[in-house]
Amino acid sequence: MCGIAGIATESPSEALRPAADLMASAMKHRGPDSQGVQDLGACLLVNARLAIIDLSDRGRMPMSSADGQFWITYNGESYNAGELRAELEGRGHQFRTTTDTEVVLHLYQEYGEGFVNKLRGMFAFAIWDVRKRKLVLGRDRLGIKPLYLHQSAGKLVFASELKTLLASGLLPRRLDPAGLRIFLQLGHIPPPWSAIRDVAPLAPGHIGVWHDGQWRTEQYWSLGPHSSVAPSSSHLAEDLSEVLLDAMRNHLVSDVPVLIFLSGGTDSACLAAVARAAGAKNLSAMTVGFGESEFDETSLTRRTADALGIPLEIVKLEARRVEQDLDHAIWALDQPSVDGLNSYWISKLGAEAGFKVALSGQGGDELFGGYESLAWFERFNTVARWATSLPAIPFARMLDQSSFPFRWRKLSYLIGADDPFVAAQLAVKVLFLDRDVRELVSPSLGNNGHPTEARDHLTYWSKLVEHEDLRERLAFMDIHTHLEPRLLRDLDAMSMAHSIEVRPVLLDHRVVEFLLPVPSSIRIQHKRLLLDATKTFLPPALLADLESRRKRTFTFPFKQWLTHDLRGLLKETFAPDRSRRAGILDAEQVNRVWDHYQRSESAVGWSRIWNLFVLQRWCELMQVSP
Length: 626
Prior knowledge:
Layout (H helix, E strand, L loop, with lengths): L1 E8 L7 H10 L7 E6 L3 E7 L13 E2 L5 E9 L2 H10 L9 H12 L9 E9 L4 E6 L8 E5 L2 E5 L2 H6 L9 H10 L13 E2 L4 E6 L2 E6 L16 H16 L6 E4 L4 H12 L6 E7 L7 H11 L3 E6 L1 H6 L1 H8 L7 H12 L4 E4 L3 H5 L4 H14 L5 H8 L6 H4 L10 H10 L4 H7 L12 H11 L6 H27 L4 E4 L4 H7 L4 H4 L4 H7 L5 H9 L9 H8 L1 H7 L2 H7 L4 H13 L1 H4 L1 H17 L4
Parallel strand pairs: 13-14, 13-16, 14-15, 16-17
Antiparallel strand pairs: 1-3, 1-9, 2-3, 4-5, 5-6, 6-7, 7-11, 8-9, 8-10, 11-12
C-alpha cells in the first residue's frame, strides 16, 4: 500500500521536478517507509511506500523493468500475485523481488493494457512505457483505491489524494461549485465531481491512457445483477462458504502482522470466524467504545472475540479526545464527507498499536441487505408512485416550508415526481433541499440556479437497472452511490492518514461476482445468507447469539457531542465574521440553520450541522477559496 502521483507532458520539462518533489513530500503519511521520484523526461513518477510485501529496499518505487523500458508506481495489493508470478515465470520472466508491484509490471510487459483483467485485489497504478512514450493508469474494479486527475496546458497530473495534487502547485486551490452543491445535498462528493475545480477521479474499473498529449479511458469491468451466471441454489451457502474462505486466504497474505476491526455486528464476526478457519496466525482484534451506553457495542464485541478466541483491545473514546484531533481528522478526509470519523479513529488506534494491515467487514450491508433504510425506500417509492399525478405546485411547496422539520420537507420530492424511484432516493438521502443549497452557497461561487447534481447522479445509476425489481435496484444503488463514492473513499483516506492498509475482504471481486446474480429475495435478507455460509466456521453459541442480536449501525454519539461537548467549537466555527472570511457559505444562512438546530435539534438533525462544520473547516485547513 502506498501513495502514487506523477506528471505527464508532451515534451520533457525539467521545471516540473520541484512539483514532483513536493508531491512526494505531501504523501509521506501514505508511505512512510520510502519516497521516490523518477524523472523520465516527458513523465515524472512519484511514490511513497508503505512496505507490506517484501520489506527490503528491493521493493522501492518507482520500479523499473530489467531493461529500463517500463516504469511503475503502484498502490495496493494484488492478492493473486503468487499464481501470476508462476504463470509469468513459465513464460520466461525473471524476478528480482517478491513484491506484487514487480508482478504487475511484468504483466503489462506480457499482455499490454489488458493485463488489468488478471489482477485480483485493490489497486491504483501508473505505468510509463518509455519506448512508446505512453502512460497507462488503472484503478481497481470497485474503486477501493483512489486516483485523481487534472489536465491543463498539455500535461496530465495525477495522485492518490487531492492534497498531493494541490501540493504540486500546478493547479489553483479553488472549490468546485458543483462539488460543493452535491456535498451539501448528499454529504459526500461522488464521481465525476470532486471538491477541487478541474479535478476528477478515474472511475472504478477503468484504465486511462495518455499518449501524445491525448487522453482516453476504457472500462474493463462493470457491476450488474446479471454480470455473471447465477450459482446453483441447492448448494448456495456451501459454495459461498468456499468463495469466502478463498478470498480470506488471499487477503491474509502479508509480511507484517494483521489486525481485524471488530464490532458487535454480524459482518465482522463472520469475517473473524472465516479468518480463523483460513489459518490466520496470531490474529488480533480492536474496537472502539463510548461512554454513551446507547452507542456502545463493546459488550457484544467482547462476546464475539471471546467465542472465537481472538484477543481484543477496546479503546473508549470521549468527546474531549475527539475534539483534540478533529482538525487532523478533517485534513485526513482529503475532501469533505459527513462520514469517516469511525474509520479515522479505529485506524489511528490500530497504527498506534503497531499494525500496518487490517481486515474490515466493509460491504456486508450492501451485499447482504443490512441497511434499515431499505424499508423507507420501499415506502417512499410506493408513495411517490401514488403521488405522480399531483402537481408539484402547490402540493410540494406546501411541504417545503422553512418552519417545518427537514424530515417533513424532504417528502416534497415525492410529489409530482417524473421518476418515483429517484424521488424516493432523494427523499431518503438528501440533507439540504434544493432551495437550501441556493440560499447557503455564497454568491462568489456563481449563480446556483436549480441544483441538479444530486438528482443527475442518482438518475444516472438508477437508469442502468430500471428494469430490475425494487430490491435489486436498491442494492445496486447502495454500491454505486454510497459504498464506492463515500464509504470506500473515506476508508482509504482515513486509514492511509495513519499509514495503515485496510482490506475489505467481502469486496473481493470474486465474492461480488458470485453474489450479484443471486436473486435479491435470497441475498438481501438481513444477513441470513452470510450467516448460513459461515455457520460451519462459527461456534454454535456465537451463531445463535448473532442471530438474536438487534441490527445496530456503528456510529458516534454525534447528537450528544454536537449539542453539548462540541458546542463551543461549533459556535466558534459558525461565527459570522469567520464564515464570511472563508467565503464559501452565506454567513447569515449558516447561522439561521445553526440557530434553528439550537432551538430544535430534531427538526434540523445533527448530520446537517456536521455537514456545514466539516465543509467550512476543510476549506480553512486546505486553504481552498471560491
